[in-house]
Structures are given as structure tokens and as C-alpha cells.
Design a protein that fits this description.
With 160 residues, the chain is mostly helical. The protein is built from 5 helices and no strands. The chain is elongated and about 55 Å long.
């Protein structure tokens, strides 16, 4: 940990930085999964899904930056390389052999949902440690992930 005048206790900052780096790995993985879907989707809904998946990736990339910068603000290091993400992500592996829009919608909505769950757990953990700033960051992320989970999974729902 680097010296900082941040008034959160050192042990709290250490635990929060660990949490942030864990979610950073997941967020970087989620970003690459959204890009995988964006690049490879095929089918009658191609353009709608292609654009939606790219929008999801862009939003998740903003979250990657927010998470990494929070770790550094607290005196830690952000461990955000692709290799770190691959080694530490807790998300399920994205299927690399799919092209069908419906299959991508299913896979990406599952990844988004998993990450949303992790963000909510991070809110609770940060709150328990008294770091409302990090809890608030993950609250923002949770709301955004829930929105994009809805946008993506709406493509799975049938018209009645």
C-alpha cells in the first residue's frame, strides 16, 4: 500500500483494495465477453445485438476504470492486465464457439447477472467495513449492470 492521507484505516483500505481488484478482474473479463459477443453475433437481429453488445462493453469499460481508480485512490495498486483478469476472474467462461444471436443473448445476460450479484455483495462488504465511497461506487455499478441485464435479456422474452 502507498501512503495516503485518506482517513480510512489502513487495514480497511487493504481489504477494500483486495475487493476492488477481485471485481476489477471480473469487470475486465465481462468487458471482453461483451466484445466477444459483439464481434461474433450473427442472425436476423444482428445489427440490434451488435450495437447493444458494443454499448454494454463501453459501459463495462467505464466500470473497469472506476474500480481501478478507486483502488489507487485508497493507496493500493490496480491489477488490471488481461492476464490478471484471466487468472482471477470468477465469471464463467464465455462460450467461444457461438454465433447465434439468441445464444449470445443468453450467455451475455448470464455474465451480466453474475457480475451484478458480485457488485451487490461488494456493496455489503464495503458497507460493513465503513467505506461508503466504495459501497456507493458499487451501487452505481449495480444499477447500471441491472439495466443492461434487462436490455440484453429482453431479447429472450417473447411477445405475447
Amino acid at each position: 500500500m502507498h501512503p495516503t492521507k485518506n482517513d480510512l484505516p489502513g487495514k480497511t483500505r487493504e481489504h477494500i483494495v483486495e475487493l476492488l481488484n477481485a471485481r476489477l478482474a471480473d469487470a475486465a473479463d465481462l468487458y471482453s465477453q461483451a466484445k466477444q459477443a459483439h464481434w461474433n453475433v450473427k442472425g436476423s437481429s444482428f445489427i440490434a445485438l451488435h450495437e447493444l453488445f458494443d454499448e454494454v462493453a463501453g459501459v463495462v469499460l467505464e466500470y473497469v476504470d472506476l474500480i481501478a481508480e478507486r483502488a489507487v485512490q485508497l493507496g493500493g495498486l490496480a491489477t488490471g492486465t488481461v492476464r490478471c483478469a484471466a487468472a482471477h476472474s470468477t465469471l464463467s467462461e464465455y462460450p467461444l464457439d457461438i454465433v447465434d444471436g439468441h445464444e449470445h443473448v443468453n450467455a451475455l445476460s448470464s455474465a451480466l447477472s453474475s457480475f451484478g450479484h458480485l457488485a451487490r455483495r461488494a456493496i455489503d462488504f464495503a458497507s460493513e467495513l465503513g467505506d461508503q465511497g466504495t459501497a456507493d461506487l458499487f451501487t452505481e455499478i449495480s444499477r447500471g449492470i441491472d439495466k443492461y441485464t434487462w436490455f440484453v435479456e429482453a431479447h429472450l422474452q417473447k411477445d405475447k
